[in-house]
Amino acid sequence: MRGLARVLVALLDELDVADTDVLGYSFGGLLALELAHRSPDRVRRLILCATAQGLPVVPPNPVPALMLMTPARYYHPRLFRLIVPRIAGGRTRRDRSQLEGQAGARLSQPPRLLGYAYQLYAASGWTSVPWLCRVSQPALVIAGDDGPIIPLANPRLMVRIMPNAQLRIVRGGGHLFLLDEPESVIDDIHAFLEA
Predict the structure, then answer these.
(1) Are 101 and 107 within 8 A, CB to CB?
(2) CATH class of the structural domain 2-59+116-194
(3) pLDDT-based confidence at 126, cuts 50/70/90?
(4) Of 26, 97, 128, 184, catalytic
(5) Which residues touch 189 (CB under 8 Å, ≥6 apart)?
(6) Is the pLDDT assigned to residue 106 strictly greater than 80?
(7) 96: buried, middle or exposed (CB in 10 Å: 19+, 13-18, 0-12)?
(8) Rounded alpha-carbon distances, angstroms, from residue 54 to 5, 30, 156
């Protein structure tokens, strides 16, 4: 995660961006936290969607967690339709047309196995708990209450530890709420960024 945060800093340098607002989604939320910790002067505001603080963590349901460990869902349409609703929950699980809308984009460019393994490696054992109380940027933590991968206890814990964080819970929202029902949070995100 440190190395990935350095890549982000290098990208900001290349783009000549002194500081910016950062939205991190799922794994990207871990990376956004790491960036805010390692380079606090580069991050004005944080929006953390469907993410957790790292270890210790309230564990997810074991079946979706095991399904998340494999990228098989990206390589076959039948596996996609079987696995993604169980991982995502929310509207993705309830509305199969939502799932079909996601399938084309996700199946057209599956991740490379090595890249997927590196992502799992970067997240395993990672934690923000020792320093999360020092992430002082204003933060909006958004979580769905129907997400099998990130139990709601984790975002609630993050908001308790972070000094300038607020929590927005998406009722009925799963792990992919920002993709399958962006209208549920877009006004909150705009209001937070404009505050």
Answers:
(1) no
(2) alpha beta
(3) very high
(4) 26
(5) 23, 47, 140, 142
(6) yes
(7) exposed
(8) 16, 8, 13
Active site residue 26: yes
Rounded Cα distance, 105 and 117, in Å:
21
180 CB-near residues (< 8 Å, 6+ apart):
88, 90, 91, 92, 95, 98, 101, 102, 174
Q: In the structure, what pLDDT confidence band is assigned to residue 101 with cuts at 50, 70 and 90?
A: confident
